[in-house]
Description:
The protein is α/β, with parallel strands linked by helices. Helices cover 23% and strands 19% of the residues. The strands form 5 sheets. Strands 2-1-11-10-9-8 form a 6-stranded antiparallel β-sheet, with helices on both faces. Strand 1 and strand 2 form a beta hairpin. The longest helix is centred in the first third of the chain and has 13 residues.
Amino acid sequence: xxxxxxxxxxxxxxxxxxxxxxxxxxPPATGAAWDTLSPxxxxxxxxxxxSLYDYLQKTKTRAFILLYQGxxxxxxxxxxxxxxxxxxxxxxxxxxxxxxxxMAQQNGNVQLSEKVSAYLGNGWTSAPLAKENLITVRHLLTxxxxxxxxxxxxxxxxxxxxxxxxxxxxAGTRWGYHTGAYYKLHDVLQxxxxxxxxxxxxxxxxxxxxxxxxxxxxxYISDARSMARxxxxxxxRGRWGTDTLLKDTTFFRQxxxxxxxxxxxxxxxxxxxxxxxxxxxxxxxxxxxxxxxxGPADMLAALGLNxxxxxxxxxxxxxxxRMGNSAYDQSAALSKYDDTLWQKINALPAGPGCTYTFTxxxxxxxxxxxxxxxxxxxxxxAGQQVIIEGNCILNQRxxxxxxxxxxxxxxxxxxxxxxxxxxx
Length: 424
C-alpha cells in the first residue's frame, strides 16, 4: 500500500552547516586525484544546477568546471567532450604568458621597463627605430605598444611578422588589443631561456602544478582540468601548496589591477571586473560600466575567442572555467555569454522554485539518490518542492513548511518508517 506524506512530520534538529573559511586545497601535481565538494555543502539547488547544465549544452559548451576553495563542486563535459579531450585556450592563454613573464622578471631575466629590442634586437617591427625603441615589455603586457592593431591586408591583428607590426602612435598613448604584438612576448621568453615556449612553460609552471598542455602557433592547448589548475594557481596568488611559483607580489598585484589609464578593465593580459569602464578589441570606444555586471566585482577573467573562459573570484574563493564553441556571435574576448553565464551561477543557491528530486529505492537519508547528491533541507521552505521518483523510506525527521510541496511521480511510493527521535 502506498503511503503519501501530506502533512508536517518532524523537524530534524541538525541544521545546515555554513562552510567555514579554510586553506585552499591543491590537487597533487601528479595523478588524477582531485577532491570534490558536494553542492549540498554550499546550499545549492539541484534543479538550478540542471538549469545551468541545460544552458551550457545549448550554448555549445564542451567542458565546464567550478572550484570552491580548490575542490571540484561542478564538472561537466558535453557535446562529445571528455575529461581527456584537448581544447584551445585562445586568448585566455595570454594570462599564462603574463604569469611566465612575471616569473622571468623575478628570476632577473626580464625587466618590464626594458625595451623589447634589448631582447629581440633592432628591427623586430617595421616602425622607425626611434619609435620601436619606445616599446617596452610592459607595453606588450598592457596592449599599449602603439603598433597598428588593424593593419591593411594581407596583415591582420594576429600577424606577428615584421612587415605587419606597423607604427601607429607612440607606445603608451593608445590601448589596442593586438595579438600579433603580444606574440613577441613568447619570443622574449624564448630568447632569455634558450628554450622553446612549450618546454619553458612546462619547466616553470606545468610540471610544478600538474598542468598539461602545449603551445601551437602561440595558442595554448590542454584538457579542462589543466585550465582549472592554472585558475587555482592564480586564486592562490601564484602559490601551489608549499611551492610559491610567483614570489614577486608586486608583479602579481600589477598583473591583476588596472595597468594603465586607457582601459581600466585591463591588467597584464588579465581582464578585470568591477571597474568604472572598459574597452574591447577592435574599437576605440570606452563603455562606461563594469565589464561583466552580473559577475563579482573582484573577478579576474581570462577571455578567449569563441568563449574560452577562466574566471578567478577571490571573494568567493572560486574558479570557473569554460571550453567550447562560440555561444553566440564570435568574439575575440568579452561576449554577452559572460554576463548570462554569471546570472546562472549566481542563481545556484536554493530559493523559491527550487526542486529536490529523489530517484531510486532506498531511505530518504541516502544522499547519493538525490539529484546532484543534494538532499532537501530538513525544513523545506515555502516555494520549494520535493519530488519522489521511485520507492523512498522516510527514515529521518523532515518538515514541510507552509506552501512547500511534496510530489510523488506516477508509480512512486513514500513510506514513513518508525524511528526513535534523538534525545534533546
